[in-house]
Structures are given as structure tokens and as C-alpha cells.
Backbone:
């Protein structure tokens, strides 16, 4: 059945956009703009892109933290398409605040939590965590985002979630000195738990509120970066 509406949950790619501190920034410029002598209405246009493989809305594969883990090119396409559950944690989303399982396991999420599980059991394995922090995109405040306790990743992993996404720069804390190599006070618990179990992480989503209350939304979480063959 064709969907009645399509919602883009990704941030547009543009020069100077937000990226993880210390990562190469996104840049786009025209490298070719040539007219064709005998075809005045035609112009050959080519652009060059420079960016990190973790630019904008993107997916983390296990290889991002585990050298022996799967790269994006190793993962079957069906893993990126499926029904998604949106869990509302806006009530606990404050600057640099840790969001624990008690903040997730609340009444407004009760229906969605019951639907999470392996696809083999007819359940939903894509979980999107809605903090509302995407409103701060491209501002300094975006880096001071709330983050998730290790227990949240462990619970969702054990429930059978195969992909966890959030509308923040990182499911783990982004330290103020990240550009200088600083690590989160609580470590990279979310990445370790999820990627270590072969699960996927989607970062920098936006507009999750448009899906709120519709736990049967179809999610197409794609990453078109050919560099994924050697990274992530």
C-alpha cells in the first residue's frame, strides 16, 4: 500500500552545518559549470562534496566502534526499512541531562514499548527517541544535548530493537571539550552496547513529532554515502 504521506526526517546538507566537534565540516562547491558550444540551452554542472562520514542525519554501523564489526555495505538493505516506534522523552530532555530508563518507561510510551521486539516475532525493531532537541540544530545549544544512560541502550537491545535513532548529535554525551579529544564522563555506553551487539544507531534526526502517536509508521532510514564501504 502506498503511504498517504512521506516525512523527511533528515537535516539538509549545506556548508557550515553542524557536525561533531573535531570532525571535518561539510563543504560543497561547483567544480564544473561549462556550456556546450552547439547547445546554448545546456550547461554541464558538477559539484564537489567534502565531508565526514558522520555528517548530518546518518547511521552508525558496528564498524564505527568495533574494527571487526559490520560496515554499512555489509548490512542487508531490509535492515534499513521497517515500522518504527516513537518514544517521547521530551519531559526529561534538558541541557546535558542524562535520560534514564525511568524517563522512557512512562505512561505516554506504554503502547509503543509493548510493540518493540524482533521482526521475526511480528514486532517493531526500529525505535526513535524523541527529545525535541532538533529545534536547536545549527546553534551552540545543540552540542549541549541530553543523552541516554547505558541502561536505556541495554533495555532496548534486550527487547529486540535493531536500530535506535534520536534527534540529537549523539545518544551519548558530547563533552564540551570534544574537539580536543575529550571523552564523555559516562563513556560511550550507548555506542558500546548497541554497536557491540550488531545493532544500528541513527543520529541527528529531526521532526520526530510528526510521527508521534503513529507507532505503525514505515521508516526508510537510508545512507547513500559510498564511503560506507570503508567506514562507519
Residues:
Amino acid at each position: 500500500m502506498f503511504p498517504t504521506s512521506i516525512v523527511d526526517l533528515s537535516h539538509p546538507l549545506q556548508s557550515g552545518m553542524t557536525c561533531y566537534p573535531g570532525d571535518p565540516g561539510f563543504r560543497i562547491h561547483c567544480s564544473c559549470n561549462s556550456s556546450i558550444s552547439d547547445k546554448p540551452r545546456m550547461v554541464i554542472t558538477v559539484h564537489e562534496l567534502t565531508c565526514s562520514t558522520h555528517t548530518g542525519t546518518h547511521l552508525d554501523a558496528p564498524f564505527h566502534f568495533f574494527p571487526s564489526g559490520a560496515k554499512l555495505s555489509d548490512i542487508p538493505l531490509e535492515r534499513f526499512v521497517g515500522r518504527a516506534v516513537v518514544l517521547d522523552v521530551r519531559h526529561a530532555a534538558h541541557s546535558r541531562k542524562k535520560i534514564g530508563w525511568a524517563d522512557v518507561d512512562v505512561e505516554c510510551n506504554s503502547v509503543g514499548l509493548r510493540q518493540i521486539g524482533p521482526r521475526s516475532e511480528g514486532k517493531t525493531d526500529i525505535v526513535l527517541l524523541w527529545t525535541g532537541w532538533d529545534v536547536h540544530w545549527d546553534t551552540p545549544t545543540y552540542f549541549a544535548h541530553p543523552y541516554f544512560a547505558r541502561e536505556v541502550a541495554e533495555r532496548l537491545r534486550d527487547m529486540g530493537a535493531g536500530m535506535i535513532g534520536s534527534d540529537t548529535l549523539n545518544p551519548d554525551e558530547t563533552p564540551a571539550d570534544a574537539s580536543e579529544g575529550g571523552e564523555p564522563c559516562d563513556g560511550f555506553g550507548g555506542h558500546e552496547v548497541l554497536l557491540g551487539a550488531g545493532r544500528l544507531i541513527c543520529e541527528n534526526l529531526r521532526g520526530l513529532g510528526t510521527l508521534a502517536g503513529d507507532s505503525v509508521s514505515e521508516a526508510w532510514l537510508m545512507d547513500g554515502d559510498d564511503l560506507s564501504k570503508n567506514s562507519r
